[in-house]
Amino acid sequence: MSTLKIKQLIMACSLGVMAASSQSYAQGQAFPTKPIRFIVPAAAGGPTDIVARMLAERMGQSLGVPVVVEAKPGAGGNIGADFVARSEPDGYTILMGTIGTHAVNQTLYKNMSYDPIEDFEPVSMVISYPLVVVSNPKLPVKSIAELIEYAKQNPGKLNRASGGSGTSMHLSGELFNNMAGIQIQHIPYKGSAPALTDVMGGQADLAFDSIVIAKPLIEAGKLRALGVTGEERSDALPEVPAIAETLPDYAMTSWIGVLAPAGTPEDRVLALQQEIAKALADEKVANHLKSLAAEPVGSTPAEFKAWIRSETDKWRPVILETGASVG
């Protein structure tokens, strides 16, 4: 199911979902009565952290309790995800999950401490977004075509930083390598912020990363944009070509969503989903996200669960075909 179809379905049934959420919320035990912990499985300053803080601020205002964002980076998001999976299923500890923690890592990692399906209750998909390929301005390439040609002429010379193994930043690069017939070495970091810092400093050559945090660095001339990973150009960077314009059929769209530990009462899951939907419906929040190429979604728990399963099925063969693996 495409993001567009999800959005259309949400628009059609949003009033019913909100009503059902409110009724369930009223019937259950009072919630929340204390601060909510929002766990981000990536380093502070990255796209997951930025979106979590934006959402937490709006939810906190509506709920009347603090929504505290706490970063627990490492292992491609597995550390933070495992922490939430083992937390009390009461709705007070929730996860900002990613394509890595819930659709990729179970295939990429040989040993997983949590089950992305059985150990969580999906709450809502929050946003979807394309990535942008950025390089150090001193790298002698100015387009995707030149990057591919340079990589072929200099085998083993180039490397690419990412926000961690199993992230969309990692897998988008693996897909690019595979489709272009090149090999750009992957270097995982504990988040987008440190990865892009090293690209700017010349310790890494390039990165596939979120437009959310790369755009201001591109505009400041600290990074050079080579291409975006969506099927088409992004409104946030309209002058930057889609990779597919050079490499037909290449497409990669990342996403972020909220999940609670398995066993969290349904009324609390629905209460959280309702607050997320309200936050994303806020014009200021929606416009800010769109300005950064992040498309607000706000799905129901059932829709998000189906999306996770479809994304898992999509990326499993890509990982196996590229040979990407983490011990």
UniProtKB/TrEMBL annotation:
* Signal peptide region: 1-26
> Would you tell me the protein name for this molecule?
Tripartite tricarboxylate transporter substrate binding protein
The root-end lineage is: Bacteria, Pseudomonadati, Pseudomonadota, Betaproteobacteria, Burkholderiales
Concerning Pfam families, the annotation shows: TctC
Xref: InterPro entries:
BUG, Bug_dom1
Q: Please give the superkingdom of this protein's source.
A: Bacteria
CDD domains given in the database record: PBP2_Bug_TTT (cd07012)
Q: Which family does it belong to?
A: Belongs to the UPF0065 (bug) family.
Q: Which organism is it from?
A: Alcaligenes endophyticus
Q: Which UniProt keywords apply?
A: Signal
